[in-house]
Amino acid sequence: MVYLFQILNGLGLGVIYFLLAVGLSVIFGLLRFVNFAHGAFYMVGAYLTYEATRDGASFWLALPLAALGVAALAGLVEALLLRRVYKLDHAYHILVTVGVALVIQELTIIIWGPIGASVAPPSSLSGVLILGQFIYPQYRLFVIGFTAILALLLWWLLEGTRLGALVRAGSESAETMALLGFDTPRINTAVFALGAGLAGLAGALAAPIRGVEPFMAVEAVGVAFAVVVIGGMGSYLGALAASLLVGVIQGVMATLWPQGASLMIYLTMAALIAVRPRGLFGRA
Amino acid sequence: MLNRRSFLSQSALVGASLGWPGLVAAAPATVIGVPVPVSGAFAANGKFAVMGAALAAEEASAALGQPFKTLDLDTEGKPATGIRKIQDAVSQSGAKLFAGGVLSSEALAMGKEATKDGAVFFTTAGADEITGKDCNKGTFRWSVSTYGAIEQTVRPLLARLPKAKRWYTITPQYVFGEGLLSAAKNVFKDKGVEHVGNSYHSLSETEFSGYITNAIAANPDVLLLLNFGSQSSAALRQAISFGLKSRMTIVVAWASGLEQFQALGADLCDGVYFGAQYWHTVDAPGNLALVKAVKAKYNMAPNYSLAGSYIMTKLLAEAAAKAKTSDGPAVAKALEGLRYQGLTGEEEIRAADHQVIKDYYLLKGKAKSAMGDANDFADIVSRGKSFLSPEAAGCKMG
Amino acid sequence: MLNKPLTQFLLACALALILPLALKSGVLASEILVYGLAAAACNLLLSYTGLLSFGQGVFFGVGSYLAALLLTRAGVGAPLSLIACALVGAALATFVGAISIRRQGVYFVMLTLAFAQFFYFLAYTFQDVTGGDNGILDVPRPIIAGRALASPWSYYVFVAVVFLVLFAALLQATRSMFGRTLLAIRENEERAAAIGYPVKAFKIAAFALSGAVTGVAGGLDAMLIGGAPLSNIEYHSSETILIMTVIGGGNLIASLLGAGAYLILGDLLSDVWPRWLLLFGLFLIVVALFFQGGLWGLVELAARRSERADEAEA
Predict the structure, then answer these.
(1) Contact A6, A254 (CB under 8 A)
(2) Entry pTM
(3) Which of A182, A282, C68, C279 could covalently link to C222 via disulfide, CB atoms 3.0 to 4.6 Å apart?
(4) Which residues lie across from B223 on neighbouring strands?
(5) Which site among B31, B72, B91 would you substitute to test the C interface, given the most C Cβ atoms closer than 10 Å to its Cβ?
(6) Which chain B residues contact residue C227 at CB under 8 A?
């Protein structure tokens, strides 16, 4: 019985991983860009939510504000810094994004201090749902439902719209796109901002669950990369399946062998790579 | 080429130099190194520790008639960096006195290094080995051990809640967590309490819903959290979001003090029990003076990081003044067996293992509406001293 | 001219001699050589083979654990321990390399990153061997001619000798047939394969050599700081080694410059401002955007300028 709860728990965890990782995956797919600043955008989303709700704004306002704020910040960073290194070796991607992540982390400490803070869930969702033995916070249920809707929207955006078609075409061949006269730099900026905005939204949604602190970025990056690798880089479906898988592994391991939970995630990653290097749904 | 910035306590120098300008200028200041994580994930501890040490050095300079200054050493939370900074401070700045070390790993490593270099290292870190199996001549610890922390939280709580017969524990899997857990199991056995389950988690865990689900399934009367820092905050937040506050009593055995209450906020802390090394409302002369001085200098209430760093720096300065040297073995000798009025009332540095014998506190968080001021998060429920003998702690001073 | 192996070796000797004069801290100087060695090994993969490995911390961490275990528990001497570090580092790198080179580009980077995380959690989980969060303590310094190298500078001499020997070995590898093949693979892998080079075997061999040298660096580090902390095998350790390599630039001596710049800058800045990582982050961004040849690129630029100035004078 407890395993069933843990699986549900894991799914709740997985949806946040999905929001966190799908942006990273899309950025990978289109830009072939290794983004170590992704966790920093997650953190900024959480802190913006904290700031807005502390100043009296409702959580429902804070949520879109955080996502848009992070998207704007990321768009700016992309246009000013990151696009200059796309063509360079991945080593420079790592160098510049590690630098950006450090700057954002330290600015966060300067603005909000080194001690973290709690963010209260909206009062309408602060209770728990009780079904027999099973107890689950209403807020986490909301996160699952909200992310499910968002996942569908995103699916439509990436598969059913012009932007999505351009993104997919761009992942195949950036040169063709440029030849056809598309403004690739602007599409790149838009996609980067979208991916980072999703990370910001993940941070905003996670804030009432885990609170905010200046070092939450680092831990987020690790999980996000694991999800992207397991799912296959650039794959929407892969990110979805892998994030739920990682969440469920973590949930079940909490009962089975907790101290090995993280080990198991990376073991899955290594094993998968050995038999199927492109990940669950990645293109070769 | 390595000019280290030194935190000269300006006001103390000005004050002193007004009285005896020639004399003060002639005596070189005794350096007290403060190796704490100022950057990295434990930056909060380092920030306040630096402030506490600076205040103590300033006061000691005025009170002891000889100048002290602190030297901030950023360990970045890494043992390797901590060791390097200690070695450099000894060889370049002539520092022989150190008060710092937040993480167990860095404190253990730095204590050994300081001793090797003929210096003294005073720490508040959680690892029992510091005054246990890895004890050594140059290392001292102010914080109560995991044994004392459990004795002073679980026992008084059982006295208050005689009906709480089923306990569940959540434990980080490393030496510190194991120490708390085994101490708790001893008390459970002694008191006939049923330990209905334990969840281990890794040191990098931030998601506790799985463990909380385990706890709910075991249906305990009390949930005892044995992790610390941001992990105990995350575990507590998530336990409360699962509605556990209304179903059971929640105890955080090793809270990090006021910093943690500020991070959690009053709503979450209300009704929760916390074990603490220090609390700013303790009614002891030494503490009242500190609260006043911190209010004047920093306009805040002293938290654990600040207070711990303050008292260690103060003790080192006084011991150096008494020994008339900052040489490690002599200062250690002056510290050994010392009884003094500290922040928690009368404290004693046990000679056999260099453990400070002091009170540990059980706090209970109060409702926001009941708070007297912005920092009045909790009431002291009980206090007391519990320590293993040096032999039982495993200390063989070589 | 500057890139010639012999020049590089002479520069390394010069730097090893200059460090004691320029720095007050023998520990910092030793650390620069230790990480310089690890970065050079990383660069063997990056600049000479075209493989961006995010897993070098694994070999470094395992090297420090192994040396610590052998020295404290098995009573093995320092030289033998370091040889063991090299062998185990090579074996581990062969394993990691063989799996990772199945993919290229970003995928390859991510695989090595996955290994870095995996081995970190492995070390954390098996606390009986690694000491878990506390790490392994009380690692002794090497004893040479009956005397322990307790003082920082006496140990520095030991590190410098090991550094120069291994650095020379790396240089020798790059100028050999083996090294030239690696470069050919980096330039055009398909062509190298078409000519008939066993590309995979060469890549794995490069990994093995890199892992061996990095393992020794880890072992030296354990003796330097007197312990093997968990942080040595953390993903940050891999990140640090990689960043040192990139800010250094495109040849082996550049990696020593990168390590030196990284550590000295960190040491200086951390004394200036608690939020020094902000400045450090800006430094990384500036290097990535404007100095893509790394610090070595600047050295070459300066050398070319002075050559041109000489020509103009003549």
Answers:
(1) yes
(2) 0.91
(3) C68
(4) B168, B250
(5) B91
(6) 79, 83, 109, 112
pLDDT score recorded for residue A272: 82
Please work out, in degrees rounded to the nearest 5, the angle formed at the alpha carbon of residue B112 by the alpha carbons of B110 and B118: 100
Whether the CB of B124 is below 8 Å from some CB of chain A: the reply is no
Architecture of the A2-275 domain: Orthogonal Bundle (1.10)
Is residue C273 a part of any domain in this protein?
Answer: no
Which of A233-247, B180-194, C110-124 has maximum average pLDDT?
Answer: B180-194
- The ipTM value here is 0.91
Say yes or no for a CB contact (<8 Å) between C110 and A274.
no
- pLDDT (average), residues C21-42: 95
Q: What is the tally of structural domains in chain C?
A: 1
- Chain B closest-CA separation from residue A142 CA (Å): 13
- Inform me whether the pLDDT recorded for B115 exceeds 60: yes
The encoded tokens of residue C171 equal 């240089």
* Per-residue pLDDT at B10: 39
Q: How far apart are CA B335 and CA B319, in angstroms?
A: 6
Is residue C257 exposed (0-12), middle (13-18) or buried (19+ Cβ within 10 Å)?
buried
Closest listed residue to residue A155, CA positions, set A198, A185, A201 = A198
By residue range, what is the domain housing residue C87? 5-265
Q: Note which residues in 236-275 of chain A have CB less than 8 A from chain B.
A: 250-251, 253-255, 258-262
C271 vs B5, B47, B134: nearest CB: B5
Q: Which two tokens stand for residue C81?
A: 């321990």
CATH code of the domain covering residue C108: 1.10.3470
Q: Does any domain span residue C302?
A: no
Domains of chain B: 10-144+282-357 (3.40.50.2300), 146-276+359-393 (3.40.50.2300)
How far lies A103's CA from each of A76, B150, B287, C218, C275, in Å?
Answer: 14, 40, 38, 29, 9
Which of A121, A140, A254 comes nearest B211 by C-beta? A254
Whether the CB of B129 is below 8 Å from some CB of chain C: the reply is yes
SS3 B186: helix
Tokens of C149: 């190298």
Strand ranges, E, within chain B: 30-36, 68-74, 97-99, 120-123, 139-141, 166-172, 194-201, 222-225, 249-252, 273-276, 339-342, 345-349, 356-357, 360-365, 378-384
**Contact C226/C137 with Cβ under 8 angstroms?**
yes
Q: In what order do the strands lie in the sheet with B339-342?
A: B339-342, B345-349, B356-357
- Whether C198 is covered by a domain: the verdict is yes
Burial of residue A125 (CB within 10 Å: 0-12, 13-18, 19+) is: middle
Residue type, B218: A
CB contact residues (below 8 A), chain A span 20-79, against chain B: none
| Predicted local confidence at residue A171, as pLDDT | 66
Is the pLDDT at A168 greater than 80? The verdict is no
Out of B46, B50, B174, the one facing C132 most closely (by C-beta) is B174
| Alpha-carbon span B302 to B311, nearest angstrom | 12
pLDDT in tens, B216-268: 989 999 999 999 888 999 999 999 999 999 999 999 999 989 999 999 999 99
Residue A128: other Cβ atoms inside 10 A: 18
The residues, ordered by sequence, that sit 6+ positions from B96 with a Cβ below 8 Å of its Cβ are: B31, B90, B118, B119, B120, B326, B327, B328, B331
Tokens at residue B308, please?
């711990």
Distance CA C234, CA C250 (A): 25
Domain boundaries, chain A: 2-275
**Residue of C23, C133, C149, C156 to mutate when probing chain B, most B C-beta within 10 A:** C133
C292–A233 C-beta distance less than 8 A: no
Residue B12: what pLDDT?
40
Is C253 part of a structural domain of the chain?
Answer: yes
User: pLDDT by residue (tens digit) across C63-90?
Assistant: 999 999 999 999 899 999 999 999 999 9
What's at A145, amino acid-wise?
G
